[in-house]
């Protein structure tokens, strides 16, 4: 079967909306209801955060969501339990995002195999070095047809962007500014960087993430690339929610209309 | 000065890929790649530069007060029936070994054209040493410190502020050294161009463990010369050091790593006892994993979440150890012991009464194991007295009458 991420981009090249949510948040068993609502109300891709005690690339909002999920009892084993059978209900592509340490302890091959079994399509591990992936893990990911997605930033050199693009599968994650997640940096300064990405003729579709928080920032990102990723703003929208479905509908409605 | 010596033949030093055996590396997100890559490419060139070495050496001599004395502790030696020498890093300006590293790194930061300095601190000694060199060089300085440590090391917080640094409380997680380091790394991600991160221990992504070890290697370079003068041999039977992330131990061990005759002893913080659930004895409790962008031994749950360590000593309250030490542990090159809070307190009191020296709580952990090592009467033992105890008076006093 073709990877669902590739199917998505084959069918849709513009305005792809990827929403990030921490698994096991706001409550332990909200993982599936949140995913269901995201699909229902128009997210094209779902990025599920695997909570970690020391998320170095995340700002306070996503950190706190992870801390809360861990307090709720979330773990990798729990997450795979929750995802068991989810493909009966959810057909949009799903990506797991997290940090390398829990995955190493789980065992990289066991983890990737499990992802393939439950129906996860891609993985983002920001602290997995490109060289180590290429030497040790690329074959494993390919064997199970699970895509590893790399990040680039405004400080990444052109040669390195090409190298990361050649290793990345599914799409390339363009971090909008050099920052942790949830920083309000002014996107107008990033224009030159977005234009540069556009001109590089990359082999993968590109999604912009970090700092995308509303319709205006989403539309700006979509002018340059295939779509964008929203995390912090979505976490804020559901953290106090009494009715997940209606919060998700309102949130996505405001971005798409 | 030997800070840039070729270590490629050593069995225990970093390899060309930034690893010590299976430990080390640089597991950084792409946002940090340019900074870490720049350091990897340039640190040896800078450290080898004669003008760098000259400036480093002259500041160590005239500003820090090096060489630090190697003191024969007569009464301590009588008590433990060995010839015990103390390497007096406590007599350095700012009161600990930490300043050796910060002087080196601020000179490096200047050469890299950086204008803003960030640091993490546990005991506050590295924070003070960083604030000090920033004042000296007129650079902006932000120090991250866990809120619990801000409380238990209050005198050092005031010192940093007086020196002009901004102290930012790390309020996440266990609110100690691990969390302060997370916040410093996040700051660096958010300020990728103008900022240098002066990491205070021999941990973190390559090249930090090797760079910090080299800048601290003056400790063992001096010990060799001083021992030769005092005993006729450069080689002691034992070198003993406490280990948080491992910078004073790395400095004290550096020029002895390939001298098989010299036994290396690293002392970790046992807290309330290794199996009490309140400990920071990483080699006993840890498994291989990634902490602060290095592959090393660390304390973690079965799910790979990093656990919150405990030690009475803020400088040792860290759930990992530097990759060099993980390798020394795994290869058996160094012996790893642990000292409990109680043992360290007792050792701190003992040194004060026997030798008139109040040691830092961290250093007291190293002293605490003298009673457990089976010395011969003519064994020459060097203990790295990494810092002085002024910052810990509150802790000592609180336990005085127990
Ligand atoms: C006096 C002293 N010794 C030792 C340490 C532990 O650090 P390291 O293991 O890097 O030497 C500290 C850390 O704050 C310290 O202040």
TrEMBL record, chain A:
Top enzyme category: lyase
Residue ranges of the TM segments: none
Pathway: Amino-acid biosynthesis; L-tryptophan biosynthesis; L-tryptophan from chorismate: step 5/5
EC number, as in UniProt: 4.2.1.20
Reaction catalyzed: (1S,2R)-1-C-(indol-3-yl)glycerol 3-phosphate + L-serine = D-glyceraldehyde 3-phosphate + L-tryptophan + H2O
Amino-acid biosynthesis as UniProt keyword: yes
GO molecular function: tryptophan synthase activity
Matching SUPFAM superfamilies: Ribulose-phoshate binding barrel
Keywords carried by this UniProt record: Amino-acid biosynthesis, Aromatic amino acid biosynthesis, Lyase, Tryptophan biosynthesis
Superkingdom as given in the UniProt entry: Bacteria
PANTHER family listed in its UniProt record: TRYPTOPHAN SYNTHASE ALPHA CHAIN, CHLOROPLASTIC, TRYPTOPHAN SYNTHASE, ALPHA CHAIN
Oligomeric and partner information: Tetramer of two alpha and two beta chains.
Assigned protein family: Belongs to the TrpA family.
Role, per record: The alpha subunit is responsible for the aldol cleavage of indoleglycerol phosphate to indole and glyceraldehyde 3-phosphate.
Name of protein: Tryptophan synthase alpha chain
Automatic annotation (TrEMBL), chain B:
Keyword Lyase tagged: yes
Annotated Tryptophan synthase beta chain-like PALP domain residues: 65-387
InterPro entries the UniProt entry points to: Trp_synth_b_CS (IPR006653), Trp_synth_beta (IPR006654), Trp_synth_beta/beta-like (IPR023026), TrpB-like_PALP (IPR001926), TrpB-like_PALP_sf (IPR036052)
Pathway participation: Amino-acid biosynthesis; L-tryptophan biosynthesis; L-tryptophan from chorismate: step 5/5
Residues recorded as bearing N6-(pyridoxal phosphate)lysine in the entry: 98
Entry's Gene Ontology molecular function annotations: tryptophan synthase activity
PROSITE patterns attached to this UniProt entry: TRP_SYNTHASE_BETA
Keywords from the named record: Amino-acid biosynthesis, Aromatic amino acid biosynthesis, Lyase, Pyridoxal phosphate, Tryptophan biosynthesis
Keyword Transferase applies: no
Reaction it catalyzes: (1S,2R)-1-C-(indol-3-yl)glycerol 3-phosphate + L-serine = D-glyceraldehyde 3-phosphate + L-tryptophan + H2O
Reported cofactor(s): pyridoxal 5'-phosphate
UniProt-listed NCBIfam families: trpB
Family of this protein: Belongs to the TrpB family.
Role of this protein: The beta subunit is responsible for the synthesis of L-tryptophan from indole and L-serine.
Protein name: Tryptophan synthase beta chain
């Amino acid at each position: 079967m073709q990877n669902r991420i590739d199917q998505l981009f084959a069918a849709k090249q513009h305005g792809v909306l990827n929403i990030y949510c921490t698994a096991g948040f706001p409550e332990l068993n909200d993982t599936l209801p949140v995913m269901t609502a995201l699909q229902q109300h128009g997210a094209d891709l779902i990025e599920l955060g695997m909570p970690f005690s020391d998320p170095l690339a995340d700002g306070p909002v996503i950190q706190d969501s992870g801390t809360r999920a861990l307090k709720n009892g979330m773990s990798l084993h729990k997450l795979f339990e929750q995802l068991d059978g989810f493909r009966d209900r959810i057909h949009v592509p799903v990506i797991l995002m997290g940090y390398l340490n829990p995955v190493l302890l789980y065992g990289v091959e066991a983890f990737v195999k499990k992802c393939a079994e439950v129906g996860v399509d891609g993985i983002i591990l920001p602290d997995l070095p490109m060289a180590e992936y290429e030497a040790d893990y690329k074959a494993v990911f390919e064997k199970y047809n699970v895509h590893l997605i790399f990040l680039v930033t405004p400080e990444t050199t052109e040669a390195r962007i090409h190298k990361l693009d050649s290793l990345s599968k599914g799409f390339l994650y363009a971090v909008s500014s050099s920052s942790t997640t949830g920083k309000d940096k002014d996107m107008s300064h990033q224009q030159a960087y977005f234009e540069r990405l556009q001109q590089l003729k990359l082999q993968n579709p590109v999604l912009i993430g970090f700092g995308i928080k509303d319709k205006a920032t989403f539309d700006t990102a979509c002018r340059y690339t295939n779509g964008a990723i929203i995390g912090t703003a979505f976490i804020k929208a559901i953290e106090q929610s009494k009715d997940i479905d209606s919060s998700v509908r309102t949130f996505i409605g405001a971005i798409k209309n | 000065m030997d800070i840039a010596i070729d270590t490629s033949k050593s069995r225990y030093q970093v390899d060309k890929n930034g690893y010590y055996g299976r430990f080390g590396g640089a597991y950084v997100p792409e946002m940090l790649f340019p900074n870490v890559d720049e350091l990897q490419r340039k640190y040896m060139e800078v450290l080898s530069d004669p003008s760098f070495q000259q400036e480093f050496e002259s500041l160590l001599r005239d500003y820090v007060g090096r060489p630090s004395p190697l003191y024969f502790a007569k009464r301590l030696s009588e008590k433990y029936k060995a010839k015990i020498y103390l390497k007096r890093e406590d007599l350095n300006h700012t009161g600990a070994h930490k300043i050796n590293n910060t002087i080196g790194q601020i000179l490096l930061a200047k050469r890299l054209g950086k204008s803003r300095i960030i640091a993490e601190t546990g005991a506050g000694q590295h924070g003070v040493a960083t604030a000090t060199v920033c004042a000296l060089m007129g650079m902006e300085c932000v120090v991250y410190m866990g809120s619990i440590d801000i409380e238990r090391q209050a005198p050092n917080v005031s010192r940093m502020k007086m020196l002009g640094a901004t102290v930012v409380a790390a309020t996440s997680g266990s609110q100690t050294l691990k969390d302060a380091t997370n916040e410093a790394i996040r700051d660096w991600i958010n300020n990728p161009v103008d900022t240098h991160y002066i990491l205070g221990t021999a941990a973190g992504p390559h090249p930090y463990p090797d760079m910090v070890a080299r800048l601290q290697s003056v400790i063992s370079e001096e010990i060799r010369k001083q021992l030769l003068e005092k005993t006729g041999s450069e080689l002691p039977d034992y070198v003993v050091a406490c280990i948080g992330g491992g910078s004073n131990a790395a400095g004290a061990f550096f020029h002895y790593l390939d001298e098989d005759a010299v036994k290396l002893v690293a002392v970790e913080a046992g807290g309330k006892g290794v199996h009490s659930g309140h400990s920071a004895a990483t080699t006993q409790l840890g498994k291989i994993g990634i902490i602060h962008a290095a592959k090393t031994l660390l304390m973690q749950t079965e799910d790979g979440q990093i656990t919150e360590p405990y030690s009475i000593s803020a400088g040792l309250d860290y759930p990992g150890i530097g990759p060099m030490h993980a390798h020394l542990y795994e290869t058996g090159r160094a012996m790893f012991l642990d000292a409990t809070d109680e043992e360290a307190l007792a050792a701190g009191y003992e040194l004060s009464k026997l030798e008139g020296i109040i040691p830092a709580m961290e250093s007291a952990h190293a002293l605490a194991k003298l009673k457990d090592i089976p010395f011969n009467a003519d064994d020459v033992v060097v203990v790295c007295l990494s810092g002085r105890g002024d910052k810990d008076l509150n802790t000592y006093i609180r336990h005085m009458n127990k």
